[in-house]
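Quick one, tokens below. Sequence please?
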């Protein structure tokens, strides 16, 4: 059976524990790298990671991008979004479809 994990600072991700997700606290690049490596080895299906931590390890996200498992998904921290997660989603959609079909309210697109 596959698991779902969340990596981030305590204040941002502790609530995910009540949903039954595997919660892992990290504050620096080395810890994030070791957690992603370990969770991938344990066949974790989805790894949610707060945007500030995801920005620390873009090479790790790129490395696993072509693999089915794990899917590494940046999420906002408790301080809000930086736009990093949505930018990565836009890139992936554009790559898959050939054009950005997602709505971007800031630019007035439909």
């Amino acid at each position: 059976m596959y698991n779902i994990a969340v990596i981030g600072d305590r204040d941002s991700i502790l609530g995910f524990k009540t949903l039954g997700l595997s919660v892992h606290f990290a504050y620096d690049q080395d810890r994030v790298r070791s957690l992603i490596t370990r969770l991938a080895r344990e066949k974790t299906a989805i790894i949610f990671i707060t945007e500030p931590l995801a920005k620390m390890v873009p090479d790790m996200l790129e490395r696993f991008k072509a693999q089915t498992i794990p899917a590494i998904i940046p999420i906002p921290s408790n301080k809000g979004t930086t736009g990093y997660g949505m930018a990565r989603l836009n890139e992936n959609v554009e790559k898959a479809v050939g054009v950005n079909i997602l709505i971007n309210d800031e630019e007035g697109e439909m």
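The longest helix spans residues 84-97. The chain has a mean pLDDT of 83.
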